[in-house]
């Protein structure tokens, strides 16, 4: 499956776009983030990028997250479920998704129970983050629709 335009819009709205690199607020400084939540060795403190670069990184990062969902989910998903999981992976990473109860419940076909897992992922650095609460609510709402 591929992410729909609505799925891309969800990620864009949750990430926002910064053309100047900034330290991850949840981790106290590292990694640095730029564009639509892009992190990696190619992001350096103080760097600036173009909107075209931010869009290219977003396309790459979403495609990578979609590939992870496609490889780890072994049951049929509708488009909304897929888009919600891709945004989740985009935010929490492949390793966290791979070991999550959310994935286990999805693969068991227990979609209602899986949906109830989204709100469990609202903390960063041991603190509930309002932005993550909002994001998990949006992902859950999309997943169940």
UniProtKB/TrEMBL annotation:
Superkingdom as given in the UniProt entry: Bacteria
Chemical reaction(s) catalysed: Hydrolysis of (1->4)-beta-linkages between N-acetylmuramic acid and N-acetyl-D-glucosamine residues in a peptidoglycan and between N-acetyl-D-glucosamine residues in chitodextrins
Protein EC: 3.2.1.17
Leading EC class: hydrolase
Keyword Hydrolase assigned: yes
The entry's keywords: Antimicrobial, Bacteriolytic enzyme, Glycosidase, Host cytoplasm, Hydrolase
Gene3D superfamilies, alphabetized: 1.10.530.40
A GO biological process held by the record: killing of cells of another organism
InterPro entries in UniProt: Bacteriophage_GH24, Endolysin_autolysin, Endolysin_T4_type, Glyco_hydro_24, Lysozyme-like_dom_sf, Lysozyme_dom_sf
Presence of the UniProt keyword Magnesium in the record: no
Gene Ontology MF terms: lysozyme activity
Family designation: Belongs to the glycosyl hydrolase 24 family.
PANTHER family with a match to the protein in the record: LYSOZYME RRRD-RELATED, PTHR38107
Protein name: Lysozyme
């Amino acid at each position: 499956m591929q992410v729909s335009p609505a799925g891309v819009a969800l990620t864009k709205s949750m990430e926002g776009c910064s053309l100047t690199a900034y330290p991850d607020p949840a981790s106290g400084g590292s990694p640095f983030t730029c564009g639509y939540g892009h992190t990696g060795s190619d992001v350096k403190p103080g760097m600036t990028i173009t909107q075209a670069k931010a869009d290219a990184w977003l396309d790459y990062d979403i495609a990578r997250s979609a590939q992870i969902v496609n490889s780890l989910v072994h049951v049929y998903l509708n488009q909304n479920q897929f888009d919600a999981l891709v945004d989740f992976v985009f935010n929490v990473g492949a390793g966290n998704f791979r070991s999550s109860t959310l994935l286990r419940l999805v693969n068991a076909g227990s979609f209602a129970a899986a949906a109830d897992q989204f709100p469990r992922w609202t903390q960063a650095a041991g603190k509930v983050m309002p932005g993550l609460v909002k994001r998990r609510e949006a992902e859950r709402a999309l997943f169940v629709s």
